[in-house]
Amino acid sequence: MSGRVTFYSLLVLLSLGTDGYASDDDEVVFVVQDQWHPPAPKFEFAVLYNLQLGGGFIGTEDSVAVAAHVGYFITEHLALELFGGVFRPTESELAQELVTEVGLVSENAQMTQLLWASGLGLQWNLIHGKFRGPNNLFGSISLYVGAGVGLGMSRVQCFGSESLDPDLFEDRNCPATSGGEIAYEPATVKLVGSVSGGARLRVGRRWSMLVELRDYIFSSRVYRPQETERPLVSDAIRNNLYVQVGVGILLGGESK
Questions:
Q1: The pTM is what?
Q2: Which structural domains are found in the chain, ordered by start?
Q3: Would you state the pLDDT for residue 35?
Q4: Which sign does the torsion angle of CA 198, 202, 206, 207 carry?
Q5: Does residue 242 carry a pLDDT above 80?
Q6: Parallel, antiparallel, or unpaired for β 233-251 and 207-223?
Q7: Between the CA of residue 35 and those of 1, 2, 31, what are the distances in Å?
Q8: What is the DSSP letter of 109?
Q9: CB-CB contact of 35 with 54 (8 Å)
Q10: Would you tell me how many other CB atoms lie within 10 Å of the CB of residue 70?
Q11: Residue 197 — pLDDT band, cuts 50, 70, 90?
Q12: What would the DSSP string read from start to end of 62-76?
């Protein structure tokens, strides 16, 4: 379909005589109104830059990284979403100060860092509006929320004198480092949940811009067999909140 839906309204001006019939100079006027609808896409592919909103024991100084989104629109307001990202977490100044100057560290689970995550979920448009600009430039603005589940890889800082969980790692010793490098236990894969909310601006038939907040949530448990000053087992629910901004391309679908 061409994308143009034309509504015809017929205005008939009748000059009626006293006998109830139309006079000879009756006039028929056609009023035509055009209403444009953007095409309904089937797929959206987007690349986004993300910045972690941190605090506590996870730093954000070098945390700018890349994320991706693929959406399949089941309806105009509901999409199946494949999402994911690769992240660059660091230790915060607070964590480093506790370790190097004070000689204390938080519970190990609180220092768990997310390296990457990917999952599948649904995305809903809460508010959706369409517009038409000059030169037949049309588009839409949407406010949406989403939720999904997937997998992610995490790591935890360890220290030279610590032993690692023998049920998870063959080598029970914290990896040796040199030159003041930070040591981590081997990375592990975890179940990750995700919730998101944002805004989408569609411009023309093929382009979109997205700004969103996304939170990756997972549980972390760290076991240190020889621990004496801290608990043998530490648990935490880790929230990893990111601001994501990107550009997408829309493919498939037909105009209404």
A1: 0.75
A2: 41-251 (2.40.160.20)
A3: 47
A4: negative
A5: yes
A6: antiparallel
A7: 14, 12, 13
A8: G
A9: no
A10: 16
A11: very high
A12: T--EEEEEEEEESSS
